[in-house]
Specification:
Keywords: Hydrolase. The chain folds into three domains: 219 residues, Rossmann fold (3-Layer(aba) Sandwich); 194 residues, Jelly Rolls (Sandwich), CATH 2.60.120; 115 residues. The chain contains twelve helices and 33 strands. The longest helix is centred in the first third of the chain and has 15 residues.
Amino acid sequence: MNAHDNLTPPDETECEILDPVWIPMPDGTRLAARIWLPRSAHDAPVPAVLEYLPYRRRDGTLARDEITYPWLAAQGYAGVRVDIRGNGDSEGLMEDEYSEAELADGEAVIAWIAAQPWCTGAVGMIGISWGGFNGLQLAARAPEALKAAITICFTDDRYADDIHYMGGCLLTENMMWSSQMLSYSSRPPDPVVVGPDWREMWRSRLHAQPLLIEPWLTHQHRDAYWRRASVCEDFNSVKAAIMAVGGWADAYSNAVPRTLAGLSSPASGLVGPWAHKYPNTAWPSPQIGFLSECKAWFDRYLKDDTTAPEAPAYRFFIKNSIAPSREVAAQPGRWAAEPAWPSPRIVPRDWSLASGGLRDGAGQGGDVLVVATPQTLGHTAQRFCPGMRSLDELAADQTPDDAAALTLDSAPLREGVDIVGAARLRLRLTPDQRSGFVVARLCDLRPDGTSAFITMGVLNLAHRAGHDAPAPMEPGAPVDVDVTLNDIAYHLPKGHRLRLSLSTSYWPMIWPSAQPLGVSIDGENSLLSVPLRPESADADTPAPSFAAPEQQRVGGQDTLRPDQSERIEEVLSNGTRRLRLITDGGKQRHHATGIEIGRHVTETWDVHPDDPLSARTEAHWIYQVGRGDWQTRTESNTVMTCDATHFHVRAWLKALDGADVVAERAWSFSIPRDDLGHEDDAD
C-alpha cells in the first residue's frame, strides 16, 4: 500500500450498527456484542473481523472502535466487538486473564459469527494488548473458521515476556496491572442494555471479583500456569495467517521477530517507533495507514484475493539518534524491510569488556570489573509499557543512572551502524549472594554528552539455567550467564559511542532482590555481541511505504474534564526515594451511547538506596461511569511491601451507585518469595 491508494472512506449511511447483540455460550451465559455491518451484507455476505476484550465496547474502547470498524465496514467487512464474560454487559464472571473459559468462549464466538447469514463463514481477529494476546492464543486452538489474525502489542510467552516478569525478575507493573484490572473489571453493566437487574448483576460481579496479583505472584517461575496459553510452546499449532505488529517504545517488541521465526503458517511482521497504540493513531509519529495494511491482509486470507499486496516478512522502523526526553512527539528515522526473518544479512559485532571500556573484537578483555549499585538506580528508565496511561513515560537522559552503574564505552564510531535485532551479553561473574539479578543497558553516548537509551535486558541469576529451573548461586563461586537484550532497530551515528551500563538494581521497574547483590565480572570471559545490519541491505530491499493514517472517527465525544498528568520525584527525610505518578484521564461523554467515563490514578513507588526490603508500591484508582441521573463510582487501593522471605499485599475496593454503597471488598495476604529458587515447582 502507498499514500496514493484511494480506499473507500467510512460512511455511516453504508454501515448498520447492531448493539446489543447477544451471543449464547454453551453453558447458557450470554456475551454482549456490538456489530458494524455493511448494509449490503444482508444480500451479499461478507467476512467478519472479531475483537474480543474485557475493556467495554460501549465506552472503554469506543473511540478507537469508531475509527476502525466503520472503516473496515466500508471495505466489505463486518466488525464484531465482544465483551469477555464478566465485563461490560456480558454475563458471567471473569476468573483470570486468558483463562480456559475465556478462550473456550472465544471459540464459541467465532463459530457463532461464521454461522450468521451475513457472514461468508470466514472470520479474522484483530486486537491490541489483551486482544492481541487472545487473538494469537485462539489461533493456536485453530478453530475452523478463523483464517487470519492481526495481533498488535502482544506476547507469545506469558511468563518471560509479559507485564508480570522480565528475565525471571518480578516487575512492579505486576501489581500496577492488577490494580488497573481491579478498577476496570469492577465497572457496572449498562442499565440501558441489561435492564433493571443491572445492580444485582453488578453486585454479584463485585463479590466474585478476583485480585489478580494473587495468582500472578504465587507463580514466580515458569510453570504450568504460565505455559498454558503461551503460544511459543507450540508455534506449529497456529494455522491462521498472522500479521504480528509492535512498536519499539512498547513493552512487547520482542514478540514480533520471535513469532515470525517460530510460525509455520503465513506470517508478516511490522514494528514502528510506537508506544502501546494502534499504528494509525500511535505516538511517536510517524503514524501509518495501518487499516489499509489490515485490509490487504484480510483481503488475501479472508477473501482469498491473490491480487492483494503481499507484505515482506519483516518491516521495521530504524530509529535515529535524538536527544533523550520523557515525551517524544515525532521519532526521526527510516523504514526498512527484510525478505526473511531471521535474516542472514544481520551479523554480530563483538566487543570485549575491560576497565577502559568496550574494546572492539573478542578476546580483548582481561580485567575484573565490580558491579554493586544502589537500590534507587533506574529512575531514568522508561515505564515498562509506555502509552497505557500517559504520554510522558519514555526514557530520560540516562546519565544519572549511568553514573551509579558500571559503564563501559566504546571508542567513537568511525562509521554509523544499524543495530537490528537482539544484542546478547555473555558474563562470567562471581556473586556475593545466593540470588539477585543483573541489568544490562545499551545507550547511545552522544557528542553533546547525553546518554540516550537504546535497549536493555535483565536476568534473575537464579534462573540462569532456565526460568523453569531456578537454583541458588554459591557466593564466591563463578557462574557463566547469558543475558538477551530486547530487540531494537537503532542507527548509531558516526562519532557516537556505544555504552554498556551494568547494574544489580533497577527500580522502579524491577522489584529488588532480598539482599543487595555485588558481582565481580571476569572481563576475559565476557563478551557483548550486537547485531548489525549492513548498509547495502537498503539497496537490495526497497524501503516499505504506507498509506496515510486513517483517523476519521464515525462518532464523537464531549470533554467534560480535560486529562492531565504529573510526575513527582522526591527524597523523604529518612533518605527514601519516592516516585509518584498522578494521571487524571479526564472525563468524556460518548455521543453514540451517552455514557460518561472518568478516571483518576495515583501510583507511588518507594525505596531506600541502601535497603531493598524498603520497597513499597501503591496504586489508587477512581473510576466513574454514568449517564444522566445514573452515576456510579468505584474506588480501589492496592499496596505491596516485602521482607526477606515474603511479599505482602493489601487491597480494598468500594463501589457506589450515587451515594449508596453497592459492595465493599478487602484483601490481605502474604506470599513466600522464590528469590533463592529452593521451593518445589509450583505446578
